[in-house]
Amino acid sequence: MSSLAARASGEVSLETVGRRAEARLVFARGGGATVLTRQHVPYPFHVTRVFRLHPEAPDLASLYLQSASGGLYRSDHLSLAIEARPGARAFVTTQAGTVVHRGGPLPTRQETRVGIGTDAFLAYTPDPLILFPGAHLNVTTEIEAAPGARAILTEGVACHDPTGRDLPFDRLSMSLRIADPAGRTLVRERSALDGEAFTAAASPLGRHRAYGTMILLAPAEILPAPRLLQAEADAFGCLAGASPLPNGAGLGLRLLASDGGRLSAGLEALARLAFRALSGCEPSRRRK
């Protein structure tokens, strides 16, 4: 049966439900500054113009990534590729958190692929995803980092029931892979969370309803000390642990918070601290 006939009869395959879209952003160095040399941004993605927010580092490009829809919906499959070519310096963030709506048998998929060239700097710090009751989400992150690359990458999720009944999301799966330009895997991890177990009284996460991670890629001598990062997270009411990544790739942090707002504040504070260390300049305030 054709897709048109299937729609007419009301028999729509699960595989045909949801949006498919892939966005790509490429930053390169030219004329003494970092410029956005390529942008393929289909619906529901949207980007602002490039901002210059660092007077002491005019070569650093800042960009807001936005969504033109009301979030992620059932069986959506959205992909984002960001490349910082050799010597480029860019800071990409989002304007607000993204809601993940109730899902179905097939997960909503969000894929992020990041490439950081030699001596490039990239900070990608999206606001946490907000998991509504019944959300079924699969998050995949692939990072390729060249020698001398520096990067700050964060991701987070928070539970929220707009009805106030504290109903859980359905399921969350997360996957991370960090590789070198030759394709050698440096770091690989996978995790899966069941919504009911996550929010149950016996949950190993206690009463925390938000979870986040931060990856810092840089030479060991310029990475912030784990104790400083943990102390900064504590100051914002987050429980954090930091440890070296395998194969000398960098530093990894995990955070727990009581809610999405507290997690956002903690991740933002940690990103500011890391930004100073990895970029050599003071981060500007991002208006959201």
Question: Can I get a quick summary?
Answer:
This protein is mainly beta and about 290 residues long.
Fraction of residues in H or I helices? 10-25%
Largest sheet: 10 strands, mixed
Low-confidence stretches: 1-10
Oligomer: single chain
Overall, the morphology is globular
> How many beta-strand runs?
17
Q: Classify the beta-strand content into a percent band.
A: 35-45%
- Structural class from helices and strands? mainly beta
SSE pattern? HEEEEEEEEEEEEEEHEHEEH
Terminal Cα span: 47 Å
Number of helices: 4
Q: Would you mind describing this structure in some detail?
A:
With 288 residues, this protein is mainly beta. Helices cover 15% and strands 43% of the residues. It has helices at residues 3-9, 195-199, 226-235, 260-279; strands spanning 20-30, 33-40, 45-47, 61-67, 77-84, 89-94, 98-100, 108-116, 121-125, 129-131, 136-145, 150-159, 171-179, 185-194, 210-217, 239-244, 251-257. The strands form two sheets. Strands 3, 4, 6, 7, 9, 10, 12, 15, 16 and 17 form a ten-stranded mixed beta sheet that branches. Residues 1-10 have low confidence and may be disordered.
